[in-house]
Amino acid sequence: MKYYSSFIHSLFLCSLLLINTDTTSASSQSIINTLPGYPGTLPFKLETGYIGVGEEDEVQLFYYFIQSENDPARDPLILWLNGGPGCSGFSGLVYEIGGYSSSCFYLLQSFRHGPLAFDLEDFDGSFPSFTLNPYSWTKIANIIFLDYPVGTGFSYATTSQAYNTTDTTSAQYNYSFLRKWLLNHPEFLKNRLYVAGDSYGGKITPMVALEIAEGNEAGVEPRMLLQGYVVGNSFTDEQKDINLRVPYAHRMALVSDEHFECTSRNNDAHILEPKCKFMSPRPIVSWSHQLFLEDDPVDLLSLSKQEKPWCRNYNYVSSYVWANNETVQEALQIRQGTITDWKRCNKSLTYEQDVESVLNHHRLLNEKGFQALAYSGDHDLILPYMSTLKWIRDLNLTLDEDWRPWTVDGQIAGVQVIQLQSINPNNVLT
């Protein structure tokens, strides 16, 4: 596994003009050539759509798919899972490539993973515009961004009962989604497959990867060419993750020796950034649990024009203006009446966290020989890097090479381990 002390920021995406869609079926897909906010034809292939999952396809999961700009037939396919639970894949596309907490994505704002970004510098509250990102992950990979679990982003259910979700059903539905997506896109069945996610998405990621591995072993069709998975600042073991927040805060000199307890004055998602004085779209975290407070884009916009210092939450206003626009939703082919108020992160999900730890999922995937990449930002108080180190060490793997610094332009930026060897010499995590 590799451990990155700081990672990057991300971006992307989109909306637009549709071709060939069937809004009455359980599954539908749309090829988008243009989108509000971007002038002219898109210089990459974008698809949006729904895949029905559940016994009677009562859960309709919405997705954004960007085809690789390099060699889509040979480049890997990545399923990206945002955090939350309840943060839209669109948030990962245009702002970060992850959920709500991984500060590692915020350090290099010029590097984004999707092909588009909002023009935040010129955004004044009116309809936002997009700019192209020359450093997108889609230069070398095909990526599916998924609105999950149901009730997130543009995903919806046809029954009230179907909105009740757990970690277990979320992983199962994501696996079912991917199976059906590949059946609808058989040209990608031969592509190397990776599942990736950060924050709470990093908890669901190994669960989905294990579903795929066990499905392959059981002969479930289609067989997926799973190579491995990626997790960042991920929830892994709830009690261990939480218990390491206080030692991390002390190590980072946020609390003194005499007052070895936490304060409420820090921005937990990124300890170097100012804490906003208004309602936050990111979670407010106690030492025993986390909860979401609602964002109010109107308040954010008014505050962004008068309050200093700058706060990252100001950036999120553009997504509300864009995604709640009727023309955008028509272009995205959002099924009319299914979503009345799009939210970047939906705090009102009926969601049960029924899996306390996924350490054994990591262990089983390692024993099966799958590759894994784990990275962790060093300024995240919600899921501190000490937690990532802890669960890696709990796997009791043997290091093929010792931890060593990695650099950017000659400056040490963190430490990494190139390879960890499992007990079975034929199974390696890299």
TrEMBL record:
GO terms for biological process: proteolysis; secondary metabolic process. Belongs to the peptidase S10 family. Residues 1-26 form the signal peptide. Transmembrane segments: none annotated. InterPro entries: AB_hydrolase_fold, Peptidase_S10. One of its GO terms (molecular function) is acyltransferase activity, transferring groups other than amino-acyl groups. It comes from Sesamum angolense. It comes from the Eukaryota. The keyword Cell wall biogenesis/degradation does not apply. The keyword Mitochondrion does not apply. Keywords: Carboxypeptidase, Hydrolase, Protease, Signal. This is Serine carboxypeptidase-like 2. It holds the Pfam family Peptidase_S10.
